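Dig into my protein:

:::
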Amino acid sequence: MGQLANAALSAWGVAALVFVAMAIGAAVALRGQTRTFAAALAGIVAVMLAGVAIMLAPQSEEDLTPERALAGMETNQANIPRADRDVAAALINQALREGNSGNTDGARKTYDRAKQLYRNAKDTLGEATVVLGEARLEHMVGQSARARTSYNEALKLFLQGGSAIGQARTYASMGDLEKDTFQWTKASEYYSLARQSWGRAPEPKSDPHVLLGIEDVPLMREGEAKARAQLLQARKIYDQLGDKSGLGDMQAIEARLEMNLGRIDLARAKLGEARGLYAVGGNQPMQGDAGLAMAQIDISRGYNRQARQTIDQTLADFAGNATGIARTRIAEGDLERMQGRLQKAKEAYAGAAGTLEGSGHRAAAEALRKLGEVEGALGDAAAAKISLNKAIATASRAGITDEEARGQLAAAVQARAVGDPDAADRHATTAATLFDRQNNKPARARAALVRAIDQAGYNDATTRFDAAQMPFGLVMAYLGLGDTWRGRGNTAEAATAYRQAERTWAGIESKVAEANKVLGLPAVEALLIVPTADPTDLAAAIDEHVQAGEPDPALVKANLDDFPDHNIEARKLVAQVEARLTAALDFAR
């Protein structure tokens, strides 16, 4: 959720939190609970006695050994010489390592070599297993179209080879892909097919990803109590398996649920627990993902000192993982941007974009977009235009609609700023269409404001900002509406719009935070020191938000003194709107 987060979270926006959303999709709650749970435990016992490792969810392939990949696939190993089997297994391991380190092209080539060995041996199920690995790789790096093609090919091969387990796992992975691209109906259909195929598979079998195949527990479609009961039952299965990474996934799922309930500190504490479980389970990439999500929460709350510590820890978690490090550099850029050090933010975004370029990973488009935004804020319009066009093209090629929409909006804002109304309208119109599909009301309101040039346009923007509860944007729309009436010589209507802007402005307590919302940045009013109560401590966060004491004013002042330009983009916007409002009211009087 794709995207948590997504998101950043999500998306949390979205999210921003990108691999946490994928981890969340990896395991969810049971249906037919008593019967399925009993069957699951029987399968667990059988698998443990046989010493067969459980295959992890598609988003956790970093732990997927060839033995796990082939477990239960009934591969026709008699058709392939032992030496070639060993080579194929080694190639699968190599491809997984290459994928996890960000070497997507290398992983693709290695998978091709492994696939060819199985194909030469006419081992259909072995080939299917490799194709499933290829599909998961493409899914992981955001290449949705390629992933769909490979998933369908894997499904045909598993069907041809008669492996119900293989079909179940493929259907579950296809559900994950549709979930991460917000195709909820298709996702549900694939998860249902996965459970049906799983029911036809012979014993022994135990694959938590297929057993727990419902995609949207954190959305609480059946209510919070039901969602928590499902998570508890899922946790029991992973506990029986002794699967620490699976338990980490459960905490990550619960973190998303807490985010959806607005309990941000508790969500961070859950992510801290997940990070610890991933560490115990040796799942380093997911450990880094959990840390990255924690850092994004810290940034969203204005805890800049804590965010710096969390980012440093996450960089250590991602040691040797170029893609993970680049994604963390994006968060570092976000932190520097909030602190007002735009040049350092630019350097962080540029470094991340350089590493991710050509990878097909969704973070590549995000890094380019944020680079373009900062270049624009620094006054380099030419560089901003290049970066934003690259961001749009990168997102479009990868089929990442939400990021493409953000890129189009950023390009529209930049074009408007440099006096290119045609380009502004073109980009904003495309962004509006894409945001409508996603039902993203705040971003849609921002697109409406960029497009507005007449009475109808500004009226549309005021309606949308009001619905999105974004008063700062509403003030800007009223001012634009007043200017439009004024240009037509209708002073009465202009004065009315200006006074509406004045009344709305007077009701905004946190003007910098609200300006940040209009800019698409974290709604932070000012930087804060780390709270007295540590929101990583789960015990301290249980039931309600962490109740932090009042920060020491001297420490807060010292922090702000270190970053005198904090929230510089939002503060400049506040000053501009104040100046416009003052001039408008002078006219109205």
